[in-house]
Amino acid sequence: MGATIKDIAAKTGLGLATISKYLNGGHVLEKNQAAIEKAIAELDFQVNEFARSLKTRQSKTVGVVIPQLNNLFMTSIVTKVEETLRHHGYGVIVCDTSKQPEREAEVLQFLLNKMVDGVILLATSKEAEGLDPVLKRNIPVVLIDRKVDRLEEKTDMVLLDNFRAAYESTRYLLERGHRRIGLLIGSEDVYTSRERLLGYYAAMDKAGISVPKNWIRCTDFTMQGAYQQTLELMEEESGLTAIFATNFEMTLGTVLALKDKGCQVPGEVSIIGFDNRELARAMQPALTIVSQPVEEMGVEAANLLLRRMQPSDGAAEEAQTILLRAAIEEGASVKRVAD
Amino acid sequence: MGATIKDIAAKTGLGLATISKYLNGGHVLEKNQAAIEKAIAELDFQVNEFARSLKTRQSKTVGVVIPQLNNLFMTSIVTKVEETLRHHGYGVIVCDTSKQPEREAEVLQFLLNKMVDGVILLATSKEAEGLDPVLKRNIPVVLIDRKVDRLEEKTDMVLLDNFRAAYESTRYLLERGHRRIGLLIGSEDVYTSRERLLGYYAAMDKAGISVPKNWIRCTDFTMQGAYQQTLELMEEESGLTAIFATNFEMTLGTVLALKDKGCQVPGEVSIIGFDNRELARAMQPALTIVSQPVEEMGVEAANLLLRRMQPSDGAAEEAQTILLRAAIEEGASVKRVAD
DNA sequence: TTCTATAGACGAAACGTTTCGCCTTTATAC
DNA sequence: GTATAAAGGCGAAACGTTTCGTCTATAGAA
User: Fold this and answer.
1) End-to-end alpha-carbon separation of chain A, Å?
2) What are the residues whose beta carbons fall under 8 Å from the beta carbon of B304, sequence distance 6 or more?
3) Looking at residue B155, what DSSP letter applies?
4) Residues in contact with strand C, defined as Cβ under 7 Å from any of its atoms
5) Nearest Cα to Cα of residue A223 among A66, A69, A72
6) CA distance B45 to B52
7) Residue A37 CB lies within 7 Å of the nucleic strand D
8) DSSP state, A266?
9) What are the strands of the beta sheet with B61-66, ordered from one edge?
10) Of A123, A159, A288, B83, which residue is most buried, by most CB within 10 angstroms?
């Protein structure tokens, strides 16, 4: 069907090696170059990547694995990763695990079959056992957003300083007089949730406030989950003056629930949310949020991986962890209250 | 590095062809099968997909191209497509074009290089010119959600009956006494927006209502865009009794804007939104929405493509268009008003 | 026992590249 | 005019599979 390198060698009267050299950016005589280009255009030639990869043992492809595609935070990272890698000639295969640990292992095996040159993983399972076959084959891996303790020495990681982000946001509320602060987090099985919870506890603790269990609500990370939990929270704990929601979806759920309850923000309840600067600014009052450097996370992860994939210095270096900081972006959803 | 079929042939004392047969599901003697499996486990053998694909001329991979990853509607479809194809042994490469037509052509070329066996496209550009090289190579394509007129005879399509969905939703409002109905749509360059606009017009027209231009607001499909437009709309057209928002993000933006304005729903303004059944039901009052059969769209698209990729009957059949219907899911966000 | 049918095993060739070591041409210096 | 260096071109082998046509061994029928 498609033309091969031989066809274009025949057509131009040149040798195979010359065509190959041209295709890979080598120097050939100008007239030959012209001839080759003409032949390529006429025959609609296209390199057979299978053959190339078979020979070079590189697929120029990396796999990106995330728990779900329906999540703005994750897809924002993926978008940036994809962009960065593309600029270096790599393609990206995105897979989601539907939050199921078994699927994670399956998907990683699939990527192994596809012979990806590297993997970026936003872990679904706690221990990411599915990575073992990948690591065994010495394929570089970068973990993103969620730490896996057992791999700390083995793979690069790009993390947010979740503890600090939560600590500082809670302090932000405390400094403005709030003492009864509700917290919405995702499953405690997830690294980021645990860290954020700890950061909140630490700040409250330091302020001498003992936190009733009931102020802390775990959800499934979704808008509707947070909506429900916020309603219950406000029902059961009418004394709360602020709520801290720790991802974007939950923030939306909380905002909607408070509004549907007719609860003024920040008049009656103050809010600190998470992510999506654009929306936070568009709203009235503008939301005060913790803004994660999603794009930076994507770029850093891609760059770490790129370095490891260069056979030169890759394997040698020690595993590296990049810890990024979130920023508090002030809106007007937090009111100063009397102590 | 990795073991090859030869290694396992040597280890078992069997021939290459036998190993190959086993790998591809053929029958071999039980004792040989045992021996092969043992060798595979011991050598940690894994099929080299490059070599396999080079020989079979199949990558067992399909490309899915969408305008952006940060969009729930699109990623829901992708998730379903991926699931369906995976069950048939196909992997999926997801690419987003960042809504840029040039990127669409680039991405399709990239997929061509990766030698995908098929393509599912949610078109970014109006004419999807980037598909031409793909079609030229006789790679099957399925268009999803957005129609491209010039390709109607050439590729399969899975579409929503957008006209009907908008017509019926508008009628739903009209039947409940609303006559001054605002409409939020995306760019008019996009097929779905145009159709939804036409459906709205048709219903209004039939009801004898002439629609001022000002009732119709085009946005960039985003939450924040719709938020802004809703505020302006309510400012300039205080007589409106209902708003129809035509995608999920815009629905959220509208809801938020109305609430921030202190506008009662449905007391002062009724709303019909789009998509995300879960959230719509969680809210109070529950939102009345047009619910698109996203999962069905994904499955249908995947199945159409699977059929075409089977060399047997694929090329022969005529291009097929599947038109799906949306459902109106009643909540309590639409009030009956006096005519 | 001999013949035939059948299941299963087998080796070689082919898929389309890249790369190695070698060869040819051209330009430059003497 | 010859010698030398540099630039560029060249074919063959190799990458790891699948597949085709052929061969062998076993079982059942006569």
Assistant:
1) 78
2) B142, B156, B158, B320, B322
3) S
4) A 2, 4-6, 16-17, 19-21, 23-24, 45-48, 50-52, 54-56; B 9, 13-18, 21, 27-29, 32, 51, 54-55
5) A72
6) 14
7) no
8) T
9) B91-96, B61-66, B118-121, B141-144, B156-160, B321-324
10) A123
In the chain, the amino acid numbered A48 is N
The Cβ-side half-sphere exposure at B269, using a 13 Å CA radius, reads: 28
Query: From CA B98, how far away is CA B93, in angstroms rounded?
Result: 16
Residue the block writes with tokens 């499996």 = B37
Q: Which residues of A touch B96 (CB under 8 A)?
A: 79, 82
pLDDT (tens place) for every residue of chain A, 339 residues total: 688 999 999 999 998 999 999 999 888 888 889 999 999 999 999 999 999 999 999 999 999 999 998 888 999 999 999 999 989 989 898 999 999 999 999 999 989 988 899 999 999 999 999 999 999 989 999 999 999 999 999 999 999 999 999 999 999 999 999 999 999 999 999 999 999 999 999 999 999 999 999 999 999 999 899 999 999 999 999 899 999 999 999 998 999 899 888 888 899 999 999 998 877 887 778 899 999 999 999 999 999 999 999 866 555 678 999 999 999 999 999 999 876
User: Which position has the token pair 């993103």?
Assistant: A144
- One-letter amino acid at A335 equals K
Residue B311 pLDDT level (bands cut at 50, 70, 90) = low
**How many angstroms separate the CA of A52 from the C1' of C20?**
17
> Has this prediction a pTM greater than 0.85?
yes
In the block, residue with structure tokens 């509208």: B254
Of A62, A64, A11, residue with least CA distance to A36: A11
Q: How far apart are CA B134 and CA B110, in angstroms?
A: 11
Three-state SS for A314? coil
Give chain A positions within 8 Å (CB) of B231: 284
Amino acid making up residue B182: G
Helix extents (H) in chain A? 5-12, 16-23, 30-43, 49-56, 72-86, 101-113, 132-136, 162-175, 191-206, 223-236, 248-260, 277-282, 294-309
